[in-house]
Design brief:
Layout: H1 2-11, H2 13-16, H3 25-34, E1 41-42, E2 47-48, E3 53-54, H4 55-65, H5 77-99, H6 105-114, H7 125-134
Antiparallel strand pairs: 1-2, 2-3
Amino acid sequence: MRLIVILLFTIYPCLANINENIDNLIPALIKIESGGDLNAIGDNGKAFGQLQIWEIVIKDVNRVYKTNYKHKDAFYYYNSIEICVLYLNFWGKNYKRKTGNDPSLEVLSKIWNGGPFGYKKKSTNKYWIKVKNLL
């Protein structure tokens, strides 16, 4: 999996600029979100797969990248990772445009947990601590 994550972050340069151990971020998110369960369904049926992807994330990725993922694609290992990386790449670039700073692992984790502006939400602090402990 490490190679796949490295390749995806190389393809999406916003994330490749992070001077942190970025290749461990996705595995940490997977462990927290589902413990690695590809068939996980959470948040009252709204979150699918190992990364607990909501349909709004799928819609965002499809809108931005002109892809045609379906919510059920979140149950597939590689699709879920690509969806996550695409989402974080887009919103990481947005963060950089707004702040002038490259997104840190903390910012990206909080975006994954709390949506595009999750880095501003206090409610994502506990999530970041969990991620940080796994990095």
